[in-house]
Amino acid sequence: MTTLTPLYHLAAEQKSAEVTDWAARIAWVVGLFVFIALVYWLMRQGWKWRASLQSGLPELPATPEGFAGDEVLLTLQGRYHASTTAGQWLDRIVAHGLGTRSRTELTLTARGLEVVRPGAADFFVPAEALREARLDKALAGKVLPEGGLLIITWAHGGTLIDSGFRSDHAAEHQAWVDAVNHLTSTTTEGTAR
Fold first, then answer.
1. What is the C-alpha R_g of the chain?
2. For 77-125, what is each residue's pLDDT tens digit?
């Protein structure tokens, strides 16, 4: 019969080799940080390139004088996710700060839609520029449950734009769809006459 060496004797005899090649480890860590910095720099260059491609988009309209005195149809507090070329949910528009996600406060009146974004550029969409509103689940890489995004389509400088918003209270989305679509139908009827 053979005797088995107890496992604790085997474990006690084997030792890990001392780590003595610190220069190689430091070189790998520095190389990793350089690689990460390069990736971020390339992403920033891509963002700038996209903005230069979209430089033909005119400046965003400012809120008109006396807008605060208009009768408010609806207000919404939530998040602004992005704006894309209409129908192209991944073609983010970054010109004039439209690609910047932020908190938002929306105000809808008969004159149009005011978008106030703390920390980003505010803009105004005249009622004549509004085309439609709908509920969707994805825009510019942001995917939510079905109906989780309020998408407002509007025209600006010959380009149709989809802007995505998410209310703090998602139950408000349908009222916004109804109000914007009603406003666009009355605006187009008024201009047709």
1. 27
2. 999 999 999 988 888 898 888 888 999 999 999 999 999 999 888 999 9
- Is it the case that residue 15 has pLDDT exceeding 80? no
Q: Which amino acid is at 189?
A: E
**Dist CA 131 CA 181 (whole Å):** 8
State both tokens at 25. Answer: 């480890």
Q: What sign results for the dihedral spanned by CA atoms 109, 118, 86, 53?
A: positive
Q: Own/partner pairs for 68-72, CB < 8 Å, 24+ apart?
A: 70/109, 70/110, 70/111, 71/109, 71/110, 72/107, 72/108, 72/109
SS3 123: strand
User: pTM for the complete prediction?
Assistant: 0.74
- Residue 159 parent element (H or E): strand 159-167
Residue 101 amino acid letter = R
Rounded Cα gap, residues 158 and 36, in angstroms: 39
State residue 141 phi and psi, 5-degree precision.
85, -5
Candidates 191, 2, 172, 193; CA nearest to 79 is 172
